[in-house]
């Protein structure tokens, strides 16, 4: 395909060529072109002489390589001078102390232009036509096999890597052409590539969709059958979820264009149908016109043009029934959204100020859509892009409840047709109407007939008919506020009092309720709230007040017992029946934010500061001690917590967690609450609790891949340590804060934080802390590929652990010394270090550490050519990781075991081990799966 734009001045995506003034310039003999290509790949950056030699000649360059390179560079300069004479543009090739730099605009090199265009096209915010044009140009820059005519390992690696980028771009281009109604444009290219790459499922899917679009569904089904057979024959696996779903859609006769029911989804994410809606109300009444309006919007969304996303923003004062209406309508139309319903309470008006951030909401949606935590990108913009990609082609409802403003909502809006976003807020979200074309639906008070219908649904027509005058007074007093009517009905049901008695109570506060549209909503319904509160037993009333102090988004029955200092089961039931609390999940409770504010006000009025502080201490002790126990179960060999924990307050009731499964389940349910507790505790006189909670959450958050939450927890712990003036705790917090930065790939930031910790450790004379810091620095250098620097830090770490008498630290350091010695090629010392480390860790009962040494030993044996010995220890590593329940490292060990078997000549065992690794990596959504597939194909 010819590019629609001017060709690049320098070409790598085919033969290596130079063009100027529309004509080719002789780029020299193959070795000279190899030097030019090696410089163009890193245009504008220093390429060292060693790197150039490696790229041109491989690992064993000739002795005269440096001189030969200088000669080639001189000839390239003369060639560039000829090109400059033709087009007047100056490209410089300069020598620096570090190597050579080819100064050229990246867009003048076809490889870099291709990458820019493909990257721009991946941004969903651009119009579809523009994205398609960019992809057409990107695909058109390819002229055949990259670096044609160049031999050598480096050129082969580049071709293999760029080919993957090319295939991804072709698939994106084909889907883009489909989206703009130009299916035939990509058919020839897809057909040719599918023949050359029969095991690339995304390519097969794009071809199948294109064949359907041009009226050839039978050929699409034939393509699926051929692809499936090749996968089974060569890899022993069935097609992935995307290809299977596409196949079923074609069989059903569904549309399979991008954005339709069978649109492309990331193949490593399981097809999940979330159902996150809260429960519907038992007795919904009224709002007929509003429901009809929402139904009309739903009908419009089904026939909307591809660019439309229908948004309905339901706004109104507190207690007006926004959430009730939205949830009821969502349940009523759930069948219209076969791909599921997402829900989040954005807590935009939470009295404690704990607003749900877009990052937290997106993370929850990605969890619900089946994205493994390790595949969640670190940045919000990338998370939004992944979320919108997963939503593409799905028919889903997204209910965004209790939004503060448009800015909080925008990142959560889907970007493709077929999905409807329903938003509730106390504010008029006018910017959404102006920019996103949202439909604004404002709720006001219920009409008299609707209010009467609601009361009748709760109390029965007979009871209202028996006291018509009292009924009218209650209706007038509640002024059509659904929340007030619901609580009044609950009060009447619970007390059995005559309606006249309730009407008399309301009459005395009618002046405030009549002013419902002005003033502070938190005080306007106070009298209504007080009805339910006044009927509570003293113990339930006390618990209700204390719940206003709870920092979490919800609370478990066990935590409520700790807050109350006594068994809370009966009290929670009483509060739920009084409509003052909602059991939104078994054993977990939440309350309306106005009720929370009301409860907190009551606590300030009726409980002393000492009583409130004692209750907060019991709750935080409950969380801290239970979380500490859970962390100990997950990681029994971890060093003790740095700030010694006090005995838990009497009646704080920490939970007894029996095993790993119980600890994991408790932390999974409670970690959002624990993060809220950390925020609450910092600087409020409970800084020790904040630090303990961060320590206790560390293992769970790290292993689960909750990097953002981990960073937040240790950032708060750092502030707490400063409040406590505890330099040792501050150093530890700096150190742990570096770990999520490492996972984000921000190695410089991670290194700075570890160095800050190391400085404090040295000042405080903390040998173990210093050793830990050097261990972390070794990890960072390893990730950056500098094994010599990593080994140096590990050796320093080992010496410090030895001086401190820390046996496990010595053993782990010795294991890491062995690993880095092996990576540097010092195999005999590596074997000795790893063997001794294994014996030490086995004596200490550290199965995780022992499994790591088995991996190292397998690597060393393989490098020494002793593949049978490598297979033996790696098989043992697989068994140990399976015993520990560590699936990721079980797959890692299986993959290495497969390599060892293949090297030993046992092809059957090798394929079996690689297939076992592939199954686990695929199940976990790990990128390593593709490398295993490639290996099996080979």
Give a short synopsis of this structure:
Helix content is 63%, strand content 6%. The protein is mostly helical and 938 residues long.
Descriptive overview:
By secondary structure, this protein is mostly helical. Among the domains are: 1-180, Arc Repressor Mutant, subunit A (Orthogonal Bundle), CATH 1.10.10.10; 288-442, Rossmann fold (3-Layer(aba) Sandwich), CATH 3.40.50; 448-533, no CATH class; 536-607, Orthogonal Bundle (Arc Repressor Mutant, subunit A). Helices cover 63% and strands 6% of the residues. It is built from 43 helices and 13 strands. The strands form four sheets. It has a five-stranded parallel beta sheet, sandwiched between helices. A three-stranded antiparallel beta sheet has the order 1-2-3, covered by helices on one side. Strands 11-13-12 form a three-stranded antiparallel beta sheet. A hairpin with a 5-residue loop joins strand 1 (10-11) and strand 2. Helix 29 (609-634) runs antiparallel to helix 30, helix 34 runs antiparallel to helix 35 (767-783) and helix 37 (807-823) packs parallel to helix 39. The radius of gyration is 33 Å and the shape is globular. It starts with 9 loop residues before the first strand and ends with a helix. The relative contact order is 0.04. Residues 1-8, 259-270 and 509-524 have low confidence and may be disordered.
């Amino acid at each position: 395909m010819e590019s629609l734009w001017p060709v690049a001045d320098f070409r790598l995506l085919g033969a290596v060529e130079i063009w100027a003034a529309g004509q080719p310039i002789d780029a020299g003999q193959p070795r000279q072109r190899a030097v030019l290509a090696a410089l163009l790949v890193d245009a504008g950056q220093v390429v060292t002489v060693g790197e150039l030699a490696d790229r041109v000649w491989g690992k064993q360059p000739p002795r005269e390589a440096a001189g030969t390179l200088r000669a080639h560079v001189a000839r390239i300069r003369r060639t560039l001078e000829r090109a400059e004479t033709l087009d007047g543009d100056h490209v410089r090739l300069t020598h620096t102390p570090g190597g050579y730099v080819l100064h050229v605009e990246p867009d003048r090199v076809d490889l870099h232009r291709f990458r820019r265009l493909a990257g721009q096209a991946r941004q969903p915010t651009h119009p579809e036509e523009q994205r398609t044009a960019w992809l057409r140009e990107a695909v058109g820059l390819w002229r055949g096999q990259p670096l044609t005519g160049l031999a050598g390992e480096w050129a082969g690696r580049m071709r293999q890597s760029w080919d993957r980028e090319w295939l991804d771009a072709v698939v994106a281009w084909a889907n883009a052409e489909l989206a703009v109604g130009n299916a035939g444009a990509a058919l020839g290219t897809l057909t040719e590539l599918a023949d050359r790459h029969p095991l690339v499922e995304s390519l097969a899917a794009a071809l199948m969709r294109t064949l359907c679009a041009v009226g050839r569904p039978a050929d699409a089904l034939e393509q699926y059958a051929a692809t499936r057979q090749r996968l089974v024959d060569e890899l022993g696996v069935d097609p992935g979820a995307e290809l299977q779903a596409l196949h079923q859609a074609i069989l059903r006769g569904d549309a399979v264009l991008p954005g339709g029911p069978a649109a492309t989804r990331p193949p490593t994410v399981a097809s999940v149908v979330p159902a996150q809606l809260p429960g519907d109300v038992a007795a919904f009444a009224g709002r007929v016109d509003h429901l009809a309006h929402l139904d009309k919007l739903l009908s419009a969304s089904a026939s909307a043009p591809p660019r439309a996303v229908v948004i309905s923003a339901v706004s109104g004062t507190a207690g007006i029934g926004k959430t009730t209406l939205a949830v009821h309508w969502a349940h009523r139309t759930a069948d219209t959204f076969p791909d599921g319903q997402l829900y989040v309470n954005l807590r935009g008006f939470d009295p404690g100020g704990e607003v749900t951030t877009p990052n937290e909401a997106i993370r929850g949606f990605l969890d619900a859509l089946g994205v493994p935590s390790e595949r969640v990108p670190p940045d919000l913009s990338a998370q939004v892009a992944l979320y919108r990609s997963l939503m593409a082609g799905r028919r889903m409802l997204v209910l965004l409840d209790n939004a503060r403003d448009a800015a909080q909502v925008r990142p959560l809006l889907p970007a493709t047709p077929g999905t409807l976003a329903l938003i509730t807020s106390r504010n008029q979200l006018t910017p959404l109407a102006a920019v996103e074309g949202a439909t604004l639906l404002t709720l006001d008070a219920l009409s008299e007939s609707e209010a009467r219908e609601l009361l009748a649904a709760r109390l029965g027509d007979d009871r209202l008919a028996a006291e018509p005058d009292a009924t009218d007074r209650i209706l007038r007093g509640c002024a059509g506020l659904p929340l007030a009517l619901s609580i009044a009905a609950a009060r009447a049901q619970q007390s059995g009092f005559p309606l006249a008695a309730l009407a008399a109570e309301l009459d005395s506060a009618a002046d405030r309720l009549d002013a419902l549209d002005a003033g502070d909503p938190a005080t306007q319904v106070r009298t209504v709230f007080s009805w339910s509160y006044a009927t509570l037993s003293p113990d339930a009333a006390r618990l209700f007040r204390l719940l206003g102090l709870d920092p979490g988004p919800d609370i478990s029955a066990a935590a409520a017992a700790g807050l109350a200092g006594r068994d809370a089961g009966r009290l929670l039931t009483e509060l739920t029946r009084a409509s003052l609390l909602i059991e939104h999940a078994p054993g977990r409770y939440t309350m309306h934010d106005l009720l929370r504010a009301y409860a907190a006000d009551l606590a300030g009025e009726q409980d002393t500061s000492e009583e409130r502080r004692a209750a907060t201490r019991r709750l935080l002790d409950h969380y801290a001690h239970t979380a500490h126990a859970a962390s100990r179960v997950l990681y029994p060999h971890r060093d003790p917590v740095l700030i010694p924990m006090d005995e838990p307050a009497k009646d704080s009731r920490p939970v007894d967690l029996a095993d790993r499964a119980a600890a994991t389940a408790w932390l999974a349910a409670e970690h959002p609450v624990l993060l809220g507790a950390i925020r609450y505790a910092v600087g409020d006189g409970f800084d020790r609790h904040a630090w303990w909670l961060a320590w206790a959450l560390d293992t769970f958050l790290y292993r689960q891949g909750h990097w953002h939450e981990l960073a937040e927890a240790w950032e708060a712990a750092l502030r707490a340590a400063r409040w406590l003036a505890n330099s040792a705790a501050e150093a530890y917090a700096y150190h742990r804060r570096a770990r999520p930065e490492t996972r984000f790939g921000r190695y410089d930031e991670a290194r700075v934080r570890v160095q800050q910790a190391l400085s404090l450790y040295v000042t405080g004379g903390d040998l173990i802390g210093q050793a830990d810091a050097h261990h972390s620095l070794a990890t960072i250098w390893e990730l950056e590929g500098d094994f010599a620097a990593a080994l140096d830090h590990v050796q320093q770490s080992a010496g410090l652990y030895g001086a401190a008498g820390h046996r496990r630290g010595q053993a782990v350091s010795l294991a890491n010394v062995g690993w880095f010695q092996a990576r540097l090629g010092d195999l005999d010392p590596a074997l000795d270090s790893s063997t001794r480390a294994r014996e030490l860790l086995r004596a200490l009962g550290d199965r995780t550490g022992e499994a790591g040494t088995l991996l190292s030993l397998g690597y060393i044996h393989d490098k020494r050519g002793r593949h049978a010995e490598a297979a033996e220890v790696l098989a043992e590593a697989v068994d140990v990781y399976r015993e520990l329940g560590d699936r990721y490292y079980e797959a890692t060990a299986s993959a290495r075991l497969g390599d060892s078997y293949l090297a030993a000549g046992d092809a059957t065992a090798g394929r079996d081990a690689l297939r076992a690794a592939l199954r686990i990596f695929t199940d976990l959504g790990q990128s390593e799966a593709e490398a295993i597939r490639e290996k099996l194909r080979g």
